[in-house]
Write a sequence for this structure.
């Protein structure tokens, strides 16, 4: 039951994160409240982590059933077996790849987001098949007026509840209660070990949240300037920001950007990998920059960075965000000029967005 809850939360928050990063026409994601994505993605990672011990416990308790014979009794029975197989396989895959992703470890050759997303549908699909197959059984149990075991003599433990009492004790003698308690403790430990990546109060007790609170200028660095290959181009004095509108292109030097009115905003970076952290950013608000180039707040913008390769080199900033007074072309972080690892000379910082879309080392903005 708990697994159904954590899995559902994980599925929908994951779907949401996918839609924000690959928005279809009809999709709309608000820029307020500023912490919205931080919360939904935090819930995604925490519910995923909580699912791991719950899934292991579930697999453990249904394990004896896998050896039930005959292998196939009827069509629904075959479907049920198949759905359980696909379900356990895909759930296991999702949770283990997700966990490795949180640990920022990519030992596989495929592009994580697409595969993680596709297999999520497989998992939720097989859950639905599983429920559909089980529905007649559940309905029968619910509509039956007499107890499932009408004769007390056939039921030696009158205090036991119907469901749990029917599951046999495991050969190692671990009692059901002890088993449940172990599962709960494991789940709690797993959650606390990761929640600190996004919940500041838990930071010091979370073994897995090694990234938060560390890093240059008090903020973790995801992709470094060296990894992005921008150490030369970002420091080049001839760097200019090109702002392309239908009316023409405006170029800004760093000094020209500094001469524009500056605004200070506190905004979190919420990395899709699970860590999130608030920081104080200073720069030009996007609405005022748009007005300065003769455009208007609320247009969609394509953001290009100095990076030559990499999937997050070019991103789209939707109108909802270009019209928000808290969206910055940031030049400073926590009271200092942006470190090159945090996006010097300038970067996008917008409220309620996945970290992957907070583009660093910006070189061009284009009205779409
Ligand atoms: N150009 C560019 N910007 C980028 C990235 C990138 O790979 N390339 N990574 C993003 C990711 S995944 C995150 S979480 C944030 C982290 O910002 P920080 O390194 O300043 O903390 O930057 C984002 N900006
Ligand atoms: Mo990220």
């Amino acid at each position: 039951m708990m697994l159904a809850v954590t899995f559902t939360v994980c599925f929908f928050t994951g779907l949401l994160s996918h839609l924000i990063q690959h928005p279809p026409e009809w999709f709309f994601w608000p820029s307020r409240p500023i912490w919205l994505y931080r919360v939904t993605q935090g819930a995604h990672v925490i519910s995923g982590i909580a699912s791991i011990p719950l899934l292991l416990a579930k697999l453990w308790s249904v394990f004896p059933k896998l050896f039930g014979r005959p292998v196939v009794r009827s069509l629904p029975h075959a479907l049920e077996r198949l759905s359980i197989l696909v379900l356990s396989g895909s759930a296991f895959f999702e949770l283990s790849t997700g966990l490795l992703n949180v640990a920022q470890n990519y030992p596989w050759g495929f592009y994580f987001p697409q595969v993680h997303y596709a297999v999520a549908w497989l998992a939720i699909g097989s859950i639905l098949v599983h429920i559909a197959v089980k529905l007649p059984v559940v309905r029968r149990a619910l509509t039956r007026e007499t107890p499932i075991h009408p004769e007390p003599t056939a039921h030696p433990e009158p205090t036991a509840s119907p469901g749990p009492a029917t599951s046999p004790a495991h050969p190692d003698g671990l009692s059901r209660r002890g088993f449940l308690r172990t599962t709960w403790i494991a789940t709690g430990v797993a959650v606390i070990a990761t929640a600190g990546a996004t919940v500041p109060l838990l930071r010091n007790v979370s073994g897995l949240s090694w990234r938060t609170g560390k890093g240059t200028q008090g903020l973790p660095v995801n992709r470094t300037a060296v990894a992005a290959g921008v150490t030369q181009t970002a420091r080049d004095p001839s760097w200019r920001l090109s702002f392309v509108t239908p009316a023409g292109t405006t170029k800004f030097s760093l000094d020209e950007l500094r001469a524009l009115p500056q605004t200070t905003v506190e905004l979190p970076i919420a990395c899709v990998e699970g860590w999130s952290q608030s920081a104080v950013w200073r720069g030009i608000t996007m609405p005022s920059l748009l007005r300065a180039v003769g455009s208007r707040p609320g247009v969609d913008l394509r953001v290009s960075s100095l990076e030559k390769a990499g999937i997050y080199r070019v991103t789209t900033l939707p109108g909802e965000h270009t019209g928000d007074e808290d969206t910055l072309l940031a030049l400073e972080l926590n009271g200092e000029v942006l470190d090159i690892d945090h996006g010097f000379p300038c970067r996008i910082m917008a409220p309620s967005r996945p970290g992957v879309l907070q583009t660093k080392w910006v070189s061009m903005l284009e009205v779409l």
About this structure: Residues 150-169 have pLDDT under 50 and may be disordered. The pocket of MTE (ligand 1) is lined by residues 219-223, 228, 269, 271, 305, 307, 310, 312-313, 342-343, 355-356, 358-361 (CB under 6 Å). DSSP finds ten helices and ten strands in the chain. Residues 92 and 261 are 51 Å apart (CA to CA).
